[in-house]
Amino acid sequence: MLRLHVLDIVFLVILLPENVKLLKNGLALTPPMGWMSWGYYMCAVNCDNYPDKCLNENLILSVADTFYHDGYQEAGFEYIIIDDCWSEKERDENGKLVPDKKRFPNGMKYIADYIHTRGLKFGMYTNIAEITCMKYPGSQYFFDIDAQTFADWGVDYLKVDGCFVKEDYLNTGYIDLGQELKKTAKDMVYSCSWPYYIQFIHKKMPDYQKIAKHCNMWRNYHDVQLHWPAVKAIINHYKNEYDRISPYHGPGQWNDPDMIIFGTGALNENQSRVHYTVYLMLSAPILLSCDMNKITTFEKKLLQNLDLIAIGQDPLGIMAKPYQLEQLVILWVKPHLPMKGDRFHSFSFAIVNLDTEQHLISIYPVVYGVNSTDGYSVMDVFANTFRKNVTLKDYIQVVVPAEDVILYTLFPL
Ligand SMILES: *[C@@H]1O[C@H](CO)[C@@H](O)[C@H](O)[C@H]1NC(C)=O
Ligand SMILES: *[C@@H]1O[C@H](CO)[C@@H](O)[C@H](O)[C@H]1NC(C)=O
Ligand SMILES: *[C@@H]1O[C@H](CO)[C@@H](O)[C@H](O)[C@H]1NC(C)=O
């Protein structure tokens, strides 16, 4: 007993100074799933002229109702996040942020309480600079006050953008704000846009080791736009950056390819399958952004497909590895649970065809790390059927339709 205590003290002395600087908040152990306003609503403040596209209290509460009533919550959708353009243009006399009085007449605590009553979680937005990207008050010089305000409101998730500041400041500001969030002792998933601004605005290489220590998730690449080429560009970016970013990806620390664009009419069914499947294979956060009433029956079924979600929410959180099979055909391979014993993972294989023509593809699973000598049972996830058993000598051959994906999960026998 005494020995243990002494050891504990030694560990405390050695580890504490380093640990207090890290985020280590125990949150987002699987990638957050939910809804965020930006992709579709953007800065929708002109509510008199566009009542159907208005960022206000009604909208946020209605998303909570939809999650609660329409099966999204059971499928894992949890966070409801207000992005930019939620506040008044001026802070109050105590330096606090003030929600837009017309669009959020009952304030943010009211919204948080409503969302929490539904068993869901509430997210908000700020920017690391003096103003937000859309020129509302930002958090620079107010980290402590803002962190406490968000905590007091019951915010569970904070997205922090990185417009309008220098590279040096990005590299310290996100850490400092994270410390202030931690001081409030309110659990908040910390979503940082930090590496995106380093790489694409300041043209430098992000220090992912540092970022992963201080943020629960972070944006790597451009905002998704509401069309298929944007989705393809995101997929290609994650393929190209796999070696650089995958080591920092896992429980509590996620690379974030930005929102899912369902419910906007931007994608056909095959493209929708590709978009969602690749995100789940990456173990990416899944954030919808749309008028929830415009989600099609096809999209809803896809979003709530539990075999798919099990892949994306797998507790191991391993980012699928891409293999270029042909110029426009990429195989993504992801090991996940359940395991047979402690050595043999299950695997999902997503064969993604970005070409406008179908391709006949053959793969030998053994080439991609599957190694159980007892073989595997192969499930076709979209067909929702057992396909066949394979040994380590077998190959799988399949026609992948244009702009579509074939998804197999292999369970060790
Ligand atoms: C099978 O591969 C996994 C890694 O995916 C490895 O940990 C395990 O040791 C391998 N098992 C055998 C028997 O080679
Ligand atoms: C697949 O393997 C399982 C386990 O060995 C066996 O029960 C099943 O019959 C096999 N299915 C086929 C179609 O061979
Ligand atoms: C979509 O995929 C289906 C099969 O999954 C295929 O028959 C169809 O041609 C594809 N549609 C388009 C528009 O590419």
Can you tell me about this structure?
The chain has 14 helices and 16 strands. The radius of gyration is 22 Å and the shape is globular. The longest helix is centred in the N-terminal third of the chain and has 18 residues, at 2-19. The protein folds into 2 domains: 6-312, Aldolase class I (TIM Barrel); 321-412, Immunoglobulin-like. It is α/β, with parallel strands linked by helices and 413 residues long. 33% of the residues lie in helices and 22% in strands. The strands form 3 sheets. Strands 7-6-5-4-3-2-1-8 form an 8-stranded parallel beta sheet. It has a 6-stranded antiparallel beta sheet with strand order 9-10-11-16-13-14, covered by helices on one side. Strands 12-15 form a two-stranded antiparallel ribbon. It holds the Pfam family Melibiase_2. InterPro entries: Aldolase_TIM, GH, Glyco_hydro_27, Glyco_hydro_27/36_CS. Its EC number is 3.2.1.-. This is Alpha-galactosidase. Keywords: Disulfide bond, Glycosidase, Hydrolase, Signal.
